[in-house]
Design brief:
The chain is an alpha/beta fold and 310 residues long. It contains twelve helices and eleven strands. Strands 7-6-5-8-9-11-10 form a seven-stranded mixed sheet, sandwiched between helices. Strands 1-2 form a two-stranded antiparallel ribbon. A two-stranded antiparallel ribbon has the order 3-4. The structure holds glutamine.
């Protein structure tokens, strides 16, 4: 039996929850996120409903109210409390141990798809998502490229956290991509960055590297919102003293694995793209180096191509 609640009760709850968000210093947007995810209700629908209209709910009303209280009082991310997040067209399981995929990271997939449309030959090589976490990027690439490439792109997700990899594999399965299936183009590897591909060293088998690595300088991690700092994995956030430890490693290693003309694409923190571009250029192994903004207009993605000497 589905639960029902009157629109006026939900509207009153929303008003109270917004005030509470302010009082506890959590994001106001969380209120509507929770209503959307757990009650299938957007703000406009709630606004337009007759006060006495009975709104059907997929879960008991108390569940929604309780999750909100826990979020405010203990600052647990709502996505961990609910157990999933919605990212691009995917519903991804998330739990402590994996970073909650952020909306801006969706743009990295758009960038990769644009490049593939311009250069379909990139589909021939292997694509890797390094530091895959919940598997968001790798899964989106595997699913969204399927419609415009003749053979499925061989996508690999890598993470050094077994807990993250288990969740990533579960997310792939729930979206119809199974590691065991003959037709699957997506495989998961436990390891650090390029490590699982050591046998491919120098062979240029990869055409695209994508990564959303940890990039926050260690001293700044403690100033993050409590929901992030106290619950999300430091492994996915802390980029060492200057935030660039993982990114430096990716700059250094990728030319030994990517093919000439191969794509190097990462997410960075605001303010890091200029230095990354300088570092990429200084190696002499990359060209067509550029950055792209997020929806707020801040440069957050850096793209480079492996120099093609021929
Ligand atoms: N964007 C994340 C945050 O704001 C950080 C993710 C990362 O370090 N890759 O917390």
């Amino acid at each position: 039996m589905t639960a029902v609640v009157k629109a006026i009760v939900l509207r009153e709850w929303r008003r109270m929850a917004l005030a509470q968000a302010q009082q506890y210093g959590v994001e106001l947007a969380g209120v509507d996120w929770l209503l959307r995810e757990l009650a299938n209700l957007d703000r406009l629908q709630l606004h337009l409903a007759q006060p006495q209209a009975e709104i059907p709910l997929p879960c008991p009303w108390e569940t929604i109210a309780e999750r909100w209280q826990q979020h405010c009082q203990q600052q647990v991310p709502l996505q961990y409390l609910v157990g999933w997040t919605t990212w691009r067209k995917l519903r991804l399981k998330v739990a402590p141990g994996v970073l909650i995929p952020r909306p801006e990271t969706e743009l990295m997939v758009d960038l990769a798809l644009q490049i593939l449309q311009q250069e379909p030959e990139l589909a021939a090589g292997h694509w890797v998502d390094l530091g895959a976490g919940s598997g968001a990027i790798a899964i989106a690439i595997a699913l969204e490229t399927a419609s415009f490439t003749q053979v499925p792109i061989r996508v690999h997700g890598v993470d050094c956290s077994p807990a993250a990899l288990m969740i990533a594999a579960e997310n792939a399965r729930s979206h119809g991509l199974s590691d065991a299936s003959q037709t699957s183009s997506l495989t998961w590897h436990l390891g650090s960055w390029f490590e699982p591909f050591a046998p491919w060293y120098g062979q240029g088998k990869m055409s695209v590297m994508l990564s959303n690595p940890p990039y926050i300088p260690t001293v700044e991690v403690e100033h993050l919102a409590a929901t992030v700092r106290d619950y999300e994995p430091a492994l996915a956030l802390d980029g060492g003293s200057d935030g660039l430890q993982a990114l430096d490693h990716l700059i250094q290693m990728a030319p030994d694995y990517l093919c000439p003309g191969g794509v190097w694409l990462v997410e960075t923190m605001a303010g890091q793209s200029e230095i990354l571009k300088t570092k990429l250029a200084a190696t002499g192994r990359y060209d067509r180096i550029c950055s792209y903004p997020d929806l707020a207009g801040i440069d957050r993605f850096v793209l480079a191509r492996i120099v093609n000497h021929r």
